[in-house]
Automatic annotation (TrEMBL):
This is Carbon-monoxide dehydrogenase medium subunit. One of its GO terms (molecular function) is oxidoreductase activity. Residues 1-170 form the FAD-binding PCMH-type domain. It comes from the Bacteria. PANTHER family: XANTHINE DEHYDROGENASE SUBUNIT C-RELATED. Transmembrane segments: none annotated. It comes from Rhodopseudomonas faecalis. The keyword Oxidoreductase applies.
Length: 266
């Protein structure tokens, strides 16, 4: 790693000020993307601003209609939260198959979606649940937040403060894990909203990152059951093909994982 200046602010305002003063800064949340690329000398920020110790960015709140998870809340705290397990248990299920214990104790939801790694789990939940991403500047709907591979609508000096999830009628998540990294080879989050809208999002499959799967949404809107997906075909166009699986393999995985997610949702 190259030399860098490390900062640990205690407020969002202090973090933003430090970012503005530095020549090439990076925010640090869980660090599971930033630290490895720094170790490989693929990124050399002048300043690393650790936002995980800012009290205003940690915590979970639930109302009758919304589950709000603050950005620096660790995965383990999400997994063990009574509010999460009561309102959207599919989120707890997602965290239970995310990484390993070391990752779950350190990783944060805000860091996951800010990085928008194509194999990360949480972007699928944010998109399928039609969440709103709150920052220190604005509120961004899920459909506008993810803009491409490792790309989001965030501006350089913008910090995610919280993610607000509408509580659905039903939701489920299932993924095929890479046995080495435990990233999602393909993962699918399904949600049946109280309005009747069906939203389905897949991660680990598309060349452009997390994606909606309209053919599955349409089938589940007609019949919310795993059987309803038996005869549908997911297009392999735009899907990834690498040493872990071909594009047609991932297309089939989307369907299979969607079926498992629907069963998990009930």
């Amino acid at each position: 790693m190259y030399p860098t200046n490390y900062h640990r602010p205690t407020t969002v305002e202090e973090a933003v000020a430090l970012f503005a003063e530095a020549s090439d800064p990076k925010y640090l949340a869980g660090g599971h993307t930033l630290i490895p690329v720094m170790k490989q000398r693929l990124n050399a920020p002048s300043d690393v601003i650790d936002i995980t110790r800012i009290p205003a960015l940690v915590g979970i709140e639930a109302s009758a209609d919304t589950l709000t998870i603050k950005a620096a809340t660790a995965y383990y705290d999400i997994l063990s939260s009574a509010d999460v397990n009561r309102t959207i248990p599919a989120i707890a299920q997602l965290v239970s198959v995310l990484g390993d214990p070391a990752v779950r104790y350190r990783g944060t939801i805000g860091g996951s979606i800010a990085t928008n790694d194509p194999n990360a789990d949480f972007p699928a939940a944010v998109l399928a649940l039609n969440a709103t991403v709150h920052t220190n500047q604005r509120a961004i709907p899920a459909d506008q937040f993810f803009t491409g591979l490792f790309s989001t609508a965030l501006q350089d000096n913008e910090i995610i403060t919280a993610i607000a999830f509408p509580i659905p009628a039903k939701a489920g998540y299932a993924k095929m894990r890479n046995p080495a990294s435990r990233f999602a080879l393909t993962g699918v989050f399904v949600a049946k909203h109280k309005s009747g809208e069906i939203r389905v999002a897949a991660t680990g499959a598309s060349q452009n990152g997390v994606m909606r799967v309209e053919v599955i949404e349409q089938a589940l809107a007609r019949d919310w059951s795993a059987a309803a997906l038996e005869n549908i075909a997911v297009s392999e166009e735009g899907l990834m093909a690498d040493i872990h699986g071909s594009s047609d393999y991932r297309a089939n995985l989307i369907k299979v994982m969607a079926q498992r997610a629907v069963v998990a949702a009930g």
